[in-house]
Structure formats: structure tokens, C-alpha cells
């Protein structure tokens, strides 16, 4: 028995999956002020007549960190940043409490200029220093050599409840994003930890002794230890849960588009040969670009509640939601009202919908029904336009080898899968606009919770070996060590796979997909010495505990 | 973070291409540049966009080069991608998608001449010339200035534009008497159709930031001011850097950035530069920031010291003298041309070209017809120690009908002793070989 819970913006969805079937589902409104009560209440609802001893795992996709960031209820963080030479970022403008320090590490991981310990002392002696409980430490190229970050952490560890260091959060290069990721991780640690403490305690009280997994934005989960250490990885996991839900309900083997059409927004996802496309660097949240790995998700302001208006003889749909549909007593015409006018849904007071669409029709000089149809066609058009722009960007991304350019692998969607409230009505319009087979996923109203329940742990690691300098680093596994000058790419590959397998096992998983994502080997020649520069990226890729394609999804009413 | 100028960056490090595994032109060359650019978060800067290359056509090559025996046997896929990347950069600029564009691509190209038997100076096809001539099929009357800041004389680009008054070529380089390829003397001023529009500024070994910027301020910029180009291209070689293993100059990343800010090129194309760890990451970052109109003042090499970019008094004096002579020539180019070509119908230019990378020796003579109506039909006869005997005819873009007809006649009537005969009909954008 698996429990999957997805906390959304308005609703929380919970499911129990047993014997590859949905045994129970619960939907409740979210109380943002008391997120724990919302989750706990949902859990109790789900479990009240279930056999607690049969629960094998609990999967939770939560907005606790996301909300804290977006609503700025995060903790104050002191950031210590070592930029070194190069681009001058205005970190002091972007973050409230920043201490910039001297020294730097170069791209090969060599400490060119050491820390100035007097500066660290001066920071300690600042009168505001004692008011911070959370610290973030980031240096440029710390993934190549974390020495300075670690040194600062060791010097200050007694003064903070929590310290986030940049190199521990991602092995990828991008200093400004590392700063943002570190800041966010440090700032949500407290709120996330106390939330998780409460969940753990509540489960104990309920005598549910199954392991907890927290959903991430990359379509996977993390174990509870990682969740305490890397709470920032839990942000924006909702879209990924929906994505994984569609994957569980429908088989996808070719280049495809997934659409999650909600009340206010439409999330757009892509798959290449059935595998999810990822954000190239990481997610953006609250205007901050991060290194948080994420399934590619582009959100546009288009949904059932999107306001529709006419200006200068032209129809505009969204991007804002101003009110509920007219049919439900709202003040503005919406996409849903257009559906009601066309008898495509039976929803609220159709007379009110008709009234609104009629006034738009007058402005356009068109019949009502045609106006309503134009609105729905307009939705499909808006999605199609966005998809086209996204594909141009995705297919134009920089390539680094002749082979890749000659192969010219372009993403060319062959089919579309849609979930969400307005999905069924809009699907034929989307199908027509795209000219692609468009499938409305069954049971799509709980796809998000199903996705949360069935996602397996994911993990990415980056190995960087330099046989001339005889150094090896795997930041995600906190490995920085000396190697022999004869270290080979094969050994690197073995190490990456071994680390990923150990990681999987440590989270209690038996069966997971480990793969090498990228592997580059460079001959290095420097005067008379030579060596190899080996870079390997490996991952436990997103996958499902099982799919739910062949089974009918059943639920208690 | 926002760029003042919208910069299109075609970054193509060709991580699977090398001349040989230990050659300076090997896979590793832009590896640390990539690390630096990615760690700095260049791709996240608002206004800087990264693009992938396209693949150039054989016809793009034929427009500029006589590949012997043909394009397919001389030009590799890697070159077609590198050129395609450069064409992409030009496209970004001309389409208005970017205010400026930088083709940070390899393999490089500025040593590739019109006739191509193989690889010389790590170059087979002249990347920016091919891209520029591709653009000129659409934008016919472009006045273009190419400023070559590679440490080696841009002899290939000089060769291609030697008779073209609409393409000003300025090369700043270490004096050819002290460095490959040995050419680039002040006296190489152009053919009869473009005399004075080939400007060489040979600098002495040991020239530092001060000397380069002196030549820029006192020669390059005044000439550009006179010439008023529609387009400025920087052949952005980076081997004037003090840490470059193949050269003897004292230029820095700051120097390169300042030069780019003042030169203000519309398009830059990477050429050489083989201090891949100590210079390229910083020079490339400097050029990118300068082109994007951003603050580059805090870019420094790890081993930088003022002493490394200083120059002797003798160098300073020498650079001043050279600059004076070059400017004198520029001012008097019409009179000098008159004196040089007055009694000639055809200007003959013999050359011996060594393909150092491939070990081929070529002997050729170029014949420039002096025509009152256009820049003049010209042709090359060439033989290599590989046994080829080549006649290569160019009908220039601005050819008059007489020169056009004569070019086609010459192609048809070429002597049987030539193993390969080529015709570039630039007027009709048609290319023939037999």
C-alpha cells in the first residue's frame, strides 16, 4: 500500500494505491496558513478505515518551501560570497545580508588566492552577526574545490543552527545560480524541517511506520535524510507530480507534449522518445534562477477561469484569472463560459454564461456560438504558439560536438496528452490546431496524486577527474580525493554507477534505473606533462514504482 | 543582470575535433573557456543568448575557395559546422535578432587562402570570409572592415580580399620576420582593384597592452573613421596573450576587452589562441562582456602582473614609428597605386605557400587584370608538390560585362596542361570546375 499526497495551490489530493489500483482518493481544500493540518487531515481521511500496518511508503509533494519563498516568509540568511575576478554580480542588491570576501579558486580548482581569515573575524564581530540562525557560504568554482566553503563552515559552525554550502547542492557549474540555490536552501531549512518534524511525529502517533519520501521537481523523490539536508529540492514539485501521473496512466514512447490545463494556468511538458525533458540548468522560482534540477515545465496563464475580453475588435484570452466564471456568479466572461454556451459542459447557470458571451459577440460582430468557438480555438492557438516558441528554443540549444550537430536530433512531438478540468473539452480543438493525436488521460483529476505516489527516487552526480593534477571530485557525493595518474574513463564510469547504486540502496530502493548521461574525455597537454580530463554525469532517472495503464482505476465514492 | 547590447553567442567548442591528439588544435582547446563561461552564468545574462551552429554548404566554400581537387575531399564536416556556426552569427546580426554576434567556434580559418590544397596554420577554410561572402549574396553592397587581432598575420584573409576595395583588411600581428607565417609586411597593400585597403601593422615581439592600444587608437580607429564600413568584423585570435605558448607578445585579457570595446565590432570570430587554460577563459569572457556592453573591469588572469604586459621603450618607439608609416601609406594610397600600376595591364603576384600542418608546398602566381570599369578579372595559376596544376579564375562581384565574358572564355579555353580548372562567377553566384 502506497500513500501519495500532492499539495496544490487550492486543493490537496491524496490517494491510496494498493495492488496497482487506486483504493481510495481524497480531495480537500488547502489551508495555506496551516499546511500541516491540511496534510494531516488528508492523511487521516485516507487512513481512517485502512490497515496501517500495510502502508509501505508515504510520498508527499508539498508546497511548504515554495510558499515560504513566494510569500517571503523565509528565514533571514547571512550569505558569505567569494566571487573572485570575473563578472561582477550585484549580489548585495539581490540579497539582503551579504558579506563579500576576498580570495578565489580558478576553473581547474586551484586556490589562486587564499581566504583572508581577518575578514571572517570581522564578519563574526559585526553586531548583526549574532542575529542570524542560518548561513549560506558560496565560492566560485567550489564544485571543483570546496576547500574555502568548507573552511568557512568549520570556522563558523558553532554560531548557526544551519549552514548551507554551495558545493553540496549541485555539482553543476553556474556561480550566480549556486548563490541563489544556497540562499534558498538556507532560507527554507527551518520552515521545512519543522514541517517535516511534525509529519514524522504525527505518523508515529498514528503508528504508521512506513518511510517518507518527498517529491522533487525532477520527477523523482528523495529520502527523508536528503529532504532535511536539501529542503530546497522540494520546491515546485507539483508539476512534476502531474507529469509523472500522466506517465503512470498513459504509455509514451515517442516525442510528445503533455499538457496540464487547470483553472488558471496550463503547464506544458515535453518528452523525447518518451523520456522527460529537463530544464537545462535548473528551476526558476520567485525570479531566482537556481541549480535545482527540474523537469522542463513552462506555465502560461491559460485555463478554464481565464478571463476573456475583446479589445479593438480582437479577442484576448487570459493571461489573468479575474474571478470565477459567470456561470458560477463571477463578474467576467471566461473560457468555461464559452464551453457552457456550446453545451460542451453542464456547468452552473448557462444563462449567465450566454449573457457574457453575447456581449463579446456583439463587440466582435459575430454570432454567439461562433464567438464561443473562437474562444476555444483561441485557447488551442495560444498553446500552439507557445509550444512552437519553446520548441525553437529547445531545438536551438547550443551543441558542443560535431557529431551532435550532424545528427541534428530535433524534438518533434508526435502526440499530445492532456489532463486537467478543461482537458476533455479543449482536446478536440488542440488536436485540430496541432494536427497531432491528442489523448485525454483517464482519471486525470488525480493524476497528480498518482504521480506523487508512484515516483521513485532520483539522483544526479557529476564526476570530474583530472589525471594531471591527480584530483577527483563528485560534489553530490561529497567526494574530493587524490587519484592515480592512470585513472581511466572506465574507472570513472564504474565509480559513478557504483555511487548511484549505493545511493539508491541507501534510500531503500531495490530496483532503479542508473544511467550515464554524459561522458567527455579530454587529452590535456601542458608543457611536458599530460593527462586526461574526465567528466561524467550519471543519474538515477525518474521512473515509476509501477504504471497503472492496464488496470481500471477504482475508487470509493 | 542585463547586457546593454543584445549579443548572440554561437559557442561551438567542437569537443570531438582535433588535428591530432596532442596538437594545439585539440578537443581540450575551449574546455576551460566553457567552464569559465558556464560558471560565470553567461547564458543567464539577459540579452546574451547562446545558439547552435548550422551546417554550411559546399557552395558556400566554393564562393571563396578553390578547393583542390574539390570541396568534398578537402573540407571536413567539422569545418562545415564551424563555418555554419559563423554564418549563424552573421545571420543573428543581419536578422536583427542580436545587436552583435560572436562566433566562438573552431576549427579556425584565417590562414586559409583562395586556393586550398590542405591545412595550413591549423586552417583549411576561411571561416569568416566564407560567412561574409554568404551574406553578400543577400547584401550586395556591403562595405566591410575585417580587423584581425590574432598574433599571426591573417595571410589567408589578406589573400582573399587583396583586390577588394570594399573589404578593408587590417591585421595587427607579431612581425612576420619573427613568427609564422612570415608575411604581413607593411608593403603588402593590395592588388590594383583594392590598393591600400590591405593594411598590415607588424608589431615587434614584446608588444604589451600599451602598444596594441596605441596602434588601435592611432591607426585602426582613424582608418575605420575614414573608411566608414557598414560592418566591422573582428578576427578575434587570442594568441597575443602574454601566456601564449606559440608567440612572444604581452597582451592581456583586459587589453583584449578594452580593444573590443573601442573597436566596437559588429561580429567577432574566434581565430587562434593556444594558452587554453591561462588565457582563453579570461580573454573570451572579456570579449563577450565588452561586446555586450558590460563591465569587464574585474576580469584578470590568475597569474597576471603589470610586469607581464609591460613593454620596453624600444618597443614603444618602434610601434609609434610603424604606426606613422602605416598611416602615411593609408593617406597616400591613391597616389601610391597610381605610381605602382600606371604602366601595367596586368599585375602579377607570385607566391610560395607552405602548408605547414599538411607539409605541402605550393607555387602560384596571381594575375590581376587592371580594368577601368570594375575591380578586374583575376586568376591564379598554381602547382603543388602533390602533382596538381591549377588554373583558378575569379570574376569579382562587381565585374563589368567584359570581365565576366573574358572570365568564362578563359575557363573554356584553359590550356590542357592544367589538371584542374576552376571558375568563380561571383556575378551570377555560379561555380565551375573541370
Notes on the protein architecture:
The complex is a heterodimer of chains A (557) and B (434). By secondary structure, chain A is an alpha/beta fold. In chain A, 33% of the residues lie in helices and 25% in strands. Chain B has 434 residues and is α/β, with parallel strands linked by helices. Helices cover 32% and strands 23% of the residues of chain B. Chain B contains twelve helices and 16 strands. The interface between A and B is large, with 38 and 47 residues.
Topology:
The complex is a heterodimer of chains A (557) and B (434).
Chain A: E1 2-7, E2 11-18, E3 21-29, H1 35-47, E4 57-61, H2 64-70, E5 77-82, H3 91-94, E6 98-101, E7 104-105, E8 111-113, H4 117-125, E9 134-139, H5 147-156, E10 162-165, H6 175-205, E11 212-215, E12 221-223, H7 224-229, H8 238-249, E13 256-261, E14 266-272, E15 275-276, E16 284-285, E17 288-289, E18 298-300, E19 308-311, E20 314-317, H9 335-341, H10 350-364, H11 368-395, H12 402-407, E21 415-419, H13 423-434, E22 437-440, H14 447-454, E23 459-466, E24 471-474, E25 479-482, H15 489-506, E26 514-526, E27 529-540
Parallel strand pairs in A: 1-4, 4-11, 5-6, 5-9, 9-10, 13-21, 21-22
Antiparallel strand pairs in A: 1-2, 2-3, 7-8, 11-12, 13-14, 14-15, 14-18, 16-17, 19-20, 23-24, 23-27, 24-25, 26-27
Chain B: E1 2-12, H1 31-40, E2 46-51, H2 58-62, E3 66-67, H3 71-74, H4 77-94, E4 100-105, E5 115-116, H5 127-136, E6 144-148, H6 155-161, E7 167-174, E8 198-203, H7 209-227, E9 231-236, H8 253-263, E10 267-270, H9 280-292, H10 313-331, H11 333-341, E11 346-355, E12 360-369, E13 378-384, E14 389-395, H12 401-412, E15 420-425, E16 430-433
Parallel strand pairs in B: 1-2, 1-4, 3-5, 4-10, 6-7, 6-9, 7-8, 9-10, 14-15
Antiparallel strand pairs in B: 11-12, 12-13, 13-14, 15-16
Helix pairs in contact in B: 1-9, 4-5, 7-8, 7-10, 8-9
Amino acid at each position: 500500500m502506497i500513500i501519495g499526497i500532492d499539495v496544490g495551490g487550492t486543493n490537496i489530493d491524496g490517494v491510496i494505491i494498493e495492488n496497482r489500483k487506486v483504493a481510495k482518493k481524497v480531495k480537500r481544500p488547502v489551508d495555506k496558513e496551516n499546511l500541516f493540518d491540511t496534510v494531516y487531515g488528508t492523511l487521516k481521511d485516507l487512513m481512517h478505515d485502512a490497515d496501517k500496518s500495510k502502508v509501505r511508503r508515504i510520498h508527499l509533494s508539498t508546497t511548504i518551501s515554495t510558499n515560504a519563498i513566494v510569500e517571503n516568509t523565509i528565514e533571514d540568511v547571512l550569505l558569505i560570497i567569494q566571487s573572485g575576478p570575473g563578472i561582477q554580480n550585484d549580489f548585495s542588491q539581490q540579497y539582503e545580508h551579504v558579506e563579500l570576501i576576498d580570495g578565489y579558486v580558478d576553473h581547474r580548482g586551484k586556490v589562486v588566492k587564499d581566504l583572508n581569515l581577518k575578514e571572517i573575524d570581522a564578519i563574526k564581530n559585526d553586531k548583526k552577526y549574532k542575529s542570524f540562525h542560518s548561513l549560506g557560504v558560496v565560492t566560485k568554482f567550489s564544485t571543483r574545490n570546496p576547500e574555502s566553503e568548507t573552511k568557512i563552515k568549520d570556522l563558523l559552525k558553532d554560531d548557526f543552527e544551519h549552514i548551507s554550502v554551495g558545493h553540496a547542492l549541485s555539482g553543476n557549474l553556474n556561480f550566480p545560480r549556486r548563490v541563489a540555490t544556497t540562499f534558498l536552501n538556507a532560507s527554507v531549512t527551518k520552515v521545512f524541517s519543522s514541517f517535516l518534524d511534525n509529519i514524522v511525529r504525527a505518523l508515529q502517533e498514528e503508528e504508521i511506520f512506513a518511510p517518507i519520501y518527498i517529491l522533487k521537481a525532477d520527477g523523482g523523490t528523495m529520502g527523508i535524510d536528503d529532504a532535511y539536508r536539501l529542503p530546497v529540492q522540494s520546491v515546485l514539485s507539483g508539476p512534476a507530480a502531474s507529469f509523472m501521473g500522466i506517465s503512470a496512466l498513459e504509455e509514451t514512447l515517442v516525442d510528445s507534449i503533455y499538457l496540464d490545463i487547470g483553472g488558471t494556468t496550463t503547464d506544458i511538458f515535453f518528452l523525447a522518445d518518451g523520456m522527460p525533458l529537463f530544464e537545462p540548468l535548473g528551476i526558476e522560482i520567485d525570479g531566482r534562477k537556481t541549480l535545482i534540477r527540474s523537469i522542463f515545465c513552462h506555465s502560461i496563464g491559460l485555463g478554464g477561469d481565464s478571463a476573456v475580453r475583446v479589445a479593438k475588435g480582437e479577442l484576448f484570452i487570459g493571461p489573468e484569472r479575474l474571478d470565477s466564471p459567470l456561470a458560477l456568479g463571477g463578474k467576467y466572461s471566461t473560457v468555461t463560459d464559452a464551453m457552457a454556451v456550446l453545451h460542451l459542459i453542464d456547468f452552473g447557470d448557462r444563462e449567465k454564461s450566454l449573457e457574457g458571451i453575447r456581449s463579446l459577440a456583439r463587440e466582435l460582430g459575430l454570432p454567439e456560438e461562433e464567438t464561443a468557438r473562437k474562444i476555444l480555438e483561441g485557447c488551442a492557438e495560444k498553446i500552439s504558439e507557445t509550444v512552437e516558441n519553446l520548441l525553437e528554443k529547445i531545438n536551438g540549444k547550443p551543441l558542443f560536438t560535431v557529431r551532435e550537430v550532424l545528427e541534428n536530433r530535433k524534438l518533434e512531438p508526435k502526440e499530445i496528452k492532456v489532463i486537467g478540468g478543461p482537458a476533455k473539452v479543449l482536446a478536440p480543438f488542440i488536436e485540430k490546431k496541432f494536427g497531432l493525436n491528442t489523448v485525454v488521460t483517464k482519471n486525470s483529476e488525480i493524476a497528480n496524486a498518482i504521480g506523487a505516489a508512484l515516483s521513485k527516487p532520483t539522483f544526479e552526480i557529476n564526476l570530474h577527474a583530472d589525471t594531471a593534477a591527480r584530483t577527483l571530485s563528485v560534489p553530490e557525493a561529497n567526494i574530493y580525493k587524490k587519484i592515480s595518474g592512470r585513472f581511466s574513463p572506465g574507472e570513472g564510469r564504474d565509480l559513478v554507477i557504483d555511487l548511484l547504486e549505493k545511493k539508491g540502496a541507501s534510500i531503500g530502493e531495490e530496483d532503479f534505473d542508473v544511467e550515464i548521461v554524459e561522458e567527455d574525455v579530454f587529452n590535456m597537454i601542458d608543457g611536458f606533462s599530460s593527462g586526461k580530463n574526465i567528466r561524467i554525469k550519471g543519474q538515477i532517472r525518474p521512473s515509476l514504482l509501477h504504471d497503472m495503464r492496464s488496470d481500471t482505476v477504482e475508487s470509493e465514492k | 543582470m542585463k547586457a546593454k547590447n543584445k549579443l548572440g553567442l554561437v559557442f561551438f567548442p567542437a569537443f570531438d575535433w582535433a588535428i591530432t591528439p596532442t596538437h594545439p588544435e585539440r578537443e581540450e582547446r575551449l574546455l576551460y573557456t566553457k567552464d569559465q563561461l558556464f560558471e560565470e552564468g553567461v547564458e543567464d545574462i539577459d540579452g546574451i543568448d547562446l545558439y547552435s551552429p548550422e551546417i554550411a554548404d559546399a557552395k558556400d566554400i566554393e564562393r571563396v575557395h578553390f578547393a583542390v581537387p574539390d570541396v568534398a575531399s578537402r573540407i571536413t564536416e567539422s569545418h562545415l559546422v564551424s563555418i555554419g556556426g559563423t554564418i549563424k552569427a552573421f545571420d543573428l546580426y543581419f536578422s536583427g535578432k542580436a545587436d552583435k554576434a560572436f562566433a566562438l567556434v573552431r576549427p579556425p580559418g584565417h590562414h586559409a587562402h583562395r586556393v586550398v590544397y590542405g591545412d595550413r596554420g591549423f586552417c583549411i577554410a576561411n571561416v569568416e570570409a566564407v560567412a561574409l561572402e554568404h551574406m553578400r549574396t543577400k547584401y550586395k553592397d556591403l562595405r566591410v572592415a575585417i580587423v584581425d587581432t590574432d598574433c599571426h598575420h591573417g595571410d589567408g584573409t589578406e589573400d582573399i580580399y587583396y583586390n577588394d576595395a570594399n573589404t578593408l583588411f587590417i591585421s595587427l600581428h607579431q612581425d612576420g620576420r619573427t613568427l609564422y607565417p612570415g608575411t604581413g609586411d607593411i608593403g603588402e597593400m593590395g592588388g590594383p582593384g583594392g590598393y591600400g585597403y590591405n593594411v598590415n601593422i607588424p608589431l615587434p615581439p614584446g608588444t604589451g597592452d600599451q602598444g596594441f592600444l596605441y596602434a588601435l587608437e592611432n591607426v585602426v580607429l582613424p582608418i575605420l573613421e575614414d573608411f566608414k564600413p557598414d560592418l566591422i568584423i573582428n578576427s578575434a585570435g587570442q594568441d597575443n596573450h602574454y601566456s601564449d605558448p606559440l608567440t612572444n607578445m604581452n597582451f592581456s585579457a583586459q587589453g583584449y576587452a578594452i580593444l573590443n570595446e573601442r573597436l566596437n565590432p559588429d561580429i567577432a570570430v574566434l581565430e587562434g589562441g593556444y594558452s587554453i587554460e591561462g588565457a582563453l577563459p579570461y580573454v573570451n569572457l572579456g570579449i563577450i562582456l565588452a561586446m555586450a556592453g558590460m563591465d569587464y573591469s574585474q576580469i584578470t588572469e590568475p597569474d597576471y602582473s603589470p610586469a607581464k604586459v609591460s613593454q620596453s621603450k624600444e618597443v614603444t618607439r618602434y610601434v609609434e614609428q610603424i604606426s606613422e608609416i602605416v598611416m602615411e601609406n593609408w593617406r597616400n594610397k591613391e597616389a601610391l597605386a597610381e605610381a605602382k600600376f600606371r604602366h601595367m595591364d596586368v599585375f602579377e603576384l607570385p607566391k610560395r605557400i607552405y602548408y605547414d600542418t599538411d607539409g605541402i608546398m605550393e607555387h602560384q602566381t596571381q594575375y590581376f587584370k587592371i580594368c577601368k570599369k570594375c575591380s578586374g578579372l583575376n586568376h591564379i595559376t598554381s602547382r603543388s608538390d602533390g602533382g596538381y596544376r591549377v588554373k583558378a579564375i575569379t570574376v569579382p562581384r562587381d565585374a563589368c560585362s567584359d570581365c565576366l565574358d573574358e572570365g568564362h572564355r578563359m575557363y573554356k579555353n584553359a590550356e590542357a596542361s592544367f589538371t584542374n580548372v576552376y571558375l568563380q562567377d561571383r556575378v551570377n553566384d555560379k561555380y565551375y570546375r573541370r
